[in-house]
């Protein structure tokens, strides 16, 4: 099995390391200082108290005929279209888009070719320190790696991808409606990111009770808005946020914000990617407004 990880940030490098250690032939597409680091020092990552070096190849250019079974696209949302334009010239059949975005999948396939997009979302977080990756997977009960066909069909490539994740001990789930899943995900993460940006002390935003209540209220409002425009909340547990009182959810959010989970998987990403999160903020609320105005959701 050959895999190309297109994007050498935290997410891309963590999946590259985990897949390579399970026996997958992994190549990482990188640029600039990260490419130089991967070529000279390798992909170094922590495992417990030790530092390991993953057996991956690093490239800075992609040959059109260099075929991979899967391409994992792990770039920022505002880099997706440029990346897909480059991948349109490559023969690899499947591009796993591990990206937070409101772009219609059909728009992506218009760029790279019909049938190539397999939408997904990672379950991971962390950071780099002195070119060493310190990252981990999110707990299975919170958010496993999620993926599914645009059509919702069960396919051989879904089964193969699931097998690859299983061998690499990466928790995963296959969903029938990735579009709805990603929109529901944004309904929660946008208010969470906003809370960090509005906090007087972002590192300890969870201690601000008023802010946590505002965050809980926004999440509740978002999920109710999605249901009002005909979007089924997924996973089903998201329905709880639409019905529970904000006063009950707020202290729970506060504890999550102040936990190690909150630091690794919420705070670090929000503070590293404010431009991306603010674009997603604008896009999400514009999407809801359009759906309310037109009476239908954008596909």
TrEMBL record:
SUPFAM superfamilies reported in the protein's UniProt record: NAD(P)-binding Rossmann-fold domains
Domain Ketopantoate reductase N-terminal residues, every copy: 3-121
InterPro entries hit by this protein: KPR_N, NAD(P)-bd_dom_sf
Source taxon at top rank: Bacteria
Pfam families documented for this protein: ApbA
Gene3D superfamilies registered for this protein in UniProt: NAD(P)-binding Rossmann-like Domain
Protein name (record): Ketopantoate reductase
Organism taxonomic ancestry: Bacteria, Bacillati, Actinomycetota, Coriobacteriia, Eggerthellales
